[in-house]
User: What shape does this take?
Amino acid sequence: MGLRKPRVLSAVTGVAGLAALAAVTMVAAPSKALAQAPSQTPSAASRPPIVYVNPPASLIPEGKALFAEDCQTCHGVDAEGSSRAPNLQGLGAATIDFWITTGRMPLADPTVQAMERPPLLTNQQAEAIAAYIVSLAPGGPGIPSVNLQSANISRGEFLFSEDCAACHTITGVGDALANNVFAPSLYPATPTQVAEAIRTGPGNMPRFGPGTLSNQEVADIVRYVEYLHAPDDRGGAGLGHVGPVTEGFVAIVFALGGLMVAGYWIGGRSHA
Ligand code: HEC
Ligand code: HEC
Assistant: This one.
């Protein structure tokens, strides 16, 4: 803070800082409580926030046939990669599933950034191909199934603003980045696809591993992205679809501003 001189002012801003800290703690606390909730009761809230599932081995023959038809000309007979396309071995089911279900693969034109578009293959075919590639070389995360019931939307908005908004914007509408790369709109993405993108980092997006974002935090972010798809208007003074806690934050900012003005005024008077 630049306004340092009056002693009363620092006291008042101290109080304001404490208030802000308390508010942030209140936002953060519920998700901590949920993350630590005991898991013996089978209620929705105590199910794990994310379960990573590898597709069943029974799908391997179907996946092998589909891979030969749709993928191997570019990715090689054993998914080992070629001059045309990267190695897929060991990437894990989540990566394979993401690229197929978002319509990025099979790729038609290898010279442009693979884009989200209506998928050519079904979810079950994506799982079958994933089962086949995992059978060639295990590793990588399974397909995430997200439990949205235990997710905290306010915490999700906070994390999204820190980790995602710089590229996708706070409303998730997407934005152009440098060098002809763009961060796409998040509206078409399903909860599974959002978790897959976070955990696998497609293309130029960074990967967020469990050391950076816990499963609970990923579920919180997914919940917020779901909210962005269909923000039910809850009134509020035209702040745009930026999220449910924004108005709370605005209130805090106004409160802080008020306290500072008060502090400045008191400080000025006591020095007179
Ligand atoms: C016409 C060639 C072509 C075909 C056909 C094709 N791919 Fe790709 N694939 C690519 C290229 C090129 C990339 C790299 C694109 C990028 O990074 O944007 C890629 C990237 C990928 C990735 C991401 C790899 C990584 O390191 O993140 C996956 C997964 C993938 N492809 C799976 C498949 C599957 C499964 C099929 C069949 C359903 C398939 N691809 C068909 C060319 C192809
Ligand atoms: C440094 C910029 C950057 C950051 C930070 C970032 N992303 Fe991305 N994101 C991208 C780019 C670029 C793509 C497109 C990748 C591709 O297609 O090659 C992408 C793709 C996605 C997709 C796939 C959307 C579709 O087309 O179906 C989702 C979902 C996504 N990001 C979610 C997130 C979330 C959630 C976060 C925060 C945890 C995040 N991203 C952080 C740049 C970023």
